[in-house]
């Protein structure tokens, strides 16, 4: 799964660039607003775990405290501007690559029209609900800095606290949990001296499809990037994997 992991890292680097422009802050704010609303207006991150995840994600992108607090207040509001809801779209890119697109919007017709337009221009198509999501598992994911702990030590801590799986990616360990075990496993990791880099709920592909053709790989990554650039979209999950040599080329193109 190295290609899949490194693709995620490239996307995170791109998000950091977007953060300088301020665009990513809007997406982070929207995820906080939605978390508060989904929690029934509960703005306490100790009682609303999805809100805690959204806040942790915002902090990992160096989002100012004032911005976070304003987003929480907006989540408790009732104006039309603040009536954001989370929507999930399923789509296919070329080569049968599946996409799950999460967005926060107060105008669903506008959002779906924009996403459909991007897909059609880049060789993708919007799919019926359930036609793509069955290709993914819904997991809690915790990224741990390996540090001075061995893989076996981290494995024991993770499995004893209820983790489902663990993957080794050089200096970072990916721990996967059932969604309702994410909080427990995360807290256990912290209490055992492990450094948590991030924690989130995500859709992880059951089987990753390698893109060995350069033209196809660049075409699909361009599609995903265009969807992610849409102001309403805050997350895109896919089931493709890019070989390291093509990933280097993609990185060079996006940083040029």
TrEMBL record:
Compartments in which it is found: Cytoplasm
TACO1/YebC-like N-terminal domain boundaries: 5-77
Pfam families with a match to the protein in the record: TACO1_YebC_N (PF20772), Transcrip_reg (PF01709)
Database matches in InterPro entries: Integrase-like_N (IPR017856), TACO1_YebC-like_2nd/3rd_dom (IPR048300), TACO1_YebC_N (IPR049083), Transcrip_reg_TACO1-like (IPR002876), Transcrip_reg_TACO1-like_dom3 (IPR026564), YebC-like (IPR029072)
Presence of the UniProt keyword Nucleotide-binding in the record: no
Domain TACO1/YebC-like second and third: 85-240
BP terms from Gene Ontology: regulation of DNA-templated transcription
UniProt keyword list: Cytoplasm, DNA-binding, Transcription, Transcription regulation
GO cellular component: cytoplasm
MF (Gene Ontology): DNA binding
Chief place of localization: cytoplasm
Cross-referenced NCBIfam families: PRK00110.1, PRK12378.1, YebC/PmpR family DNA-binding transcriptional regulator
Family: Belongs to the TACO1 family.
Protein name: Probable transcriptional regulatory protein AUJ73_05090
């Amino acid at each position: 799964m190295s290609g899949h992991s490194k693709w995620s890292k490239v996307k995170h680097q791109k998000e950091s660039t977007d953060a300088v422009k301020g665009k990513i802050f809007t997406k982070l704010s929207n995820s906080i607003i939605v978390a508060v609303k989904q929690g029934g207006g509960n703005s306490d991150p100790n009682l609303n775990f999805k809100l805690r995840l959204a806040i942790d994600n915002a902090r990992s992108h160096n989002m100012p405290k004032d911005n976070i607090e304003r987003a929480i207040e907006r989540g408790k509001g009732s104006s039309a501007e603040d009536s954001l809801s989370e929507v999930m779209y399923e789509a296919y890119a070329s080569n049968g690559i599946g996409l799950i697109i999460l967005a926060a919007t107060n105008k669903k017709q506008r959002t779906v029209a924009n996403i459909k337009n991007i897909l059609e221009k880049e060789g993708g198509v919007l799919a019926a609900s359930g036609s793509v999501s069955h290709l993914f598992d819904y997991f809690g994911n915790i990224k741990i800095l390996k540090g001075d702990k061995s893989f076996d030590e981290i494995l024991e801590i993770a499995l004893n606290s209820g983790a489902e799986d663990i993957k080794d990616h050089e200096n970072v360990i990916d721990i996967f949990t059932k969604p309702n075990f994410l909080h427990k496993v995360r807290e256990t990791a912290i209490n055992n001296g492990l450094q948590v880099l991030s924690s989130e709920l995500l859709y992880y592909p059951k089987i990753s499809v390698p893109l060995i053709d350069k033209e196809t790989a660049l075409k699909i990554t361009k599609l995903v990037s265009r969807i992610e650039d849409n102001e309403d979209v805050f997350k895109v999950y896919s089931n493709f994997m890019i070989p390291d040599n093509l990933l280097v080329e993609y990185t060079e193109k996006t940083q040029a």
